Amino acid sequence: MQEKLSRDELNHFEQELRERLSVLRSDVLEKLSTAESYAEIVGQVHDAEEESLADLLADVSLAAIAAQQEQARDIDAALQRLLTRTFGSCIDCGEPIGRERLEAYPTAKRCLSCQRSLEKRRAGPPTPTL
Question: What per-residue confidence (pLDDT) applies to 61?
Answer without folding.
Answer: 73
